[in-house]
Known about the structure:
Elements: H1 3-20, H2 43-50, H3 54-61, H4 70-79, H5 84-94, H6 112-119, E1 126-129, E2 135-138, H7 140-146, H8 159-165, H9 167-172, H10 176-193, H11 198-210, H12 212-220, E3 231-235, E4 239-249, E5 257-263, H13 269-289
Antiparallel strand pairs: 1-2, 1-5, 3-4, 4-5
Helix pairs in contact: 2-3, 2-4, 4-5, 7-13, 8-10, 11-12
Amino acid sequence: MNDDQKRLEIGQFLRSRRLRLTPQNAGLQHADFSRRRTKGLRREEVAALAGISLPWYTSLEQGKDINVSDEVLDSLARVLRLNEDEHKHLYLLARPPRTAYKGDVEQPAVSDSLKYLLDQMPLCPAYISDRRMNVLAWNSLASSVFGSFGTSDSRERNMIWRMFKLSSYQTMFIDWENLAGSLLGHFRAMYTRHIEDPWYTEFIQEMTEGSPEFAARWDNYVVGCSSQHPRVIAHPKAGLLNLSTHLFPVQDSSCQFLSVFTPDLKDGSVERLAILADQSLKQTSAVLKG
Length: 290
């Protein structure tokens, strides 16, 4: 993604936050609502509240090439009521990347030690994913809980694709609406950090054209720096599984993440997950013997 596209992304983000904020929320108690066509704040209102000129703010929303100071970014974050994740997102969009994009190089493989670690968690589903939220490796219980991850070149490896394209996920996850929003917010943050990677442009276009639900949520511009939303699952074999999510970045240059899901200790999820783990182990043993 070139600099022009990145500036357009800043404009889209600022517009989304301006339009979601009412004059009352911004402290404009005496605004004239009779002539108001904009559902949120007007550009001139944001500019005035942030202490910057209207032409300058308009240029920023229109994606023009202008320099933005930290003070201005902080002022806009205050006026637009950005949360911590959104504030970080604005900075990431407005600043050049710390490391230059090196092209579409081959993604690093999951190390043998990490694969070993996955296998040492037989009672907790776990997997390794990359910066694009593609699942690279997993333990047997993860596939028993979340379903087959398909072949190495399959879209089924991508967690965003799975959430929006697998109809079984929309029925299996009891809190699908919030979970999908959390995952998409995390995906947007990852996209911002690797905005020069053309894979994202291709994938986002594919998902926008193939999933109206994804397209609508993508336009809403949800941002979240981490995805630790719990998974509450109506599993077809195990029944109710209430799983907490733990996301750990792998401390090397691979841009990989370890996701581990632990069962609720009081509602019976531990016992139900253990039964599923035992079934998974027996199936794996049968395959190896066969």
